[in-house]
Amino acid sequence: MLTQIKGLHHVTSMARDAAENNHFFTQVLGLRRVKQTVNFDAPDVYHLYYGDQAGTPGTVMTHFPFPNIIRGRQGTGEVGTTAFAVPQGSLKYWENRLAAARTGDLEAAESFGEKRLTFRAPEGDSMALVEVPNDVRVPWTGNGVDGENAIRGFHSVSMRLRDGGATEELLRYMGYQNAGSANGIKRLIRPDGNGADFVDIEVLPSVAHADLGSGSVHHVAFAVENRATQLEVRKALLDTGYQVTPVIDRDYFWAIYFRTPGGVLFEIATNEPGFDRDEDTAHLGETLKLPAQHEHLRSYLEGHLQPLEDEKEAA
Length: 315
Description:
This protein is of the alpha+beta class. It has helices at residues 18-28, 91-100, 165-173, 227-240, 298-304, 311-314; strands at residues 8-15, 32-38, 46-51, 60-65, 78-87, 104-111, 114-120, 126-132, 153-161, 177-182, 185-189, 198-203, 217-224, 248-249, 253-259, 265-273. The chain has one domain (8-314): 2,3-Dihydroxybiphenyl 1,2-Dioxygenase, domain 1, CATH 3.10.180.10.
């Protein structure tokens, strides 16, 4: 069993409209944009990161906004719901805030003894806010959500699979333990993790495979402390029979990827070096940062990429 994995690192989804995406995650959910850069493989497309003040692993939602992408079709073989942790007693605040923003499919519910508010982001992402008592993670409050209500970071991801057995076995190998079942969903927990500790598995044997598009999760990343522990995890996964990519430098972390038995793309990402490697923490996400191999495209990209904020928001 692996001991190096410490919970979720980030979740990356697909989008269509960069400005709408930026507005929702900063001005509605109140997260901080901690980095605006580009997709390494498609540099004419943003890669936007939202999280807490520093972009701490376990808090960061990221998006690739492809302007002409089709809408995703939900199904199996994907992350279905991405859930954030909020303070106990804050869901009424969030229900009012999300309703005022005309957020779709708002529904209060309870699962595993936790109160939650489910909703859809503008491009169809299935999301939830879950009340968590005594979450010690320090929230970002710079976008108008006070500390008594602000998002602390991730709570969980929920995967929809046609057969959950092999994926559950993989997660157990990654250090996760059984945390019970409720309403047909099995929950696993990474004990002593970083706060973003849960993975839920929902088995839907008769549901068709999902089609990737806007509103779909592209991959979910799990955190390891550094490159040395990442290499240990990579070797263990290779020895177990998984096809794992070489280590890839993503500027703000190093990454390896592999496809799970249920079809979900997993990433193992390092906590180092962090989002302040090329920007002061006080000014994270304010300017376009480019990978070195794409710096020669700066003039073109600055004229081509969609502005993220209108004049009122930027003021």
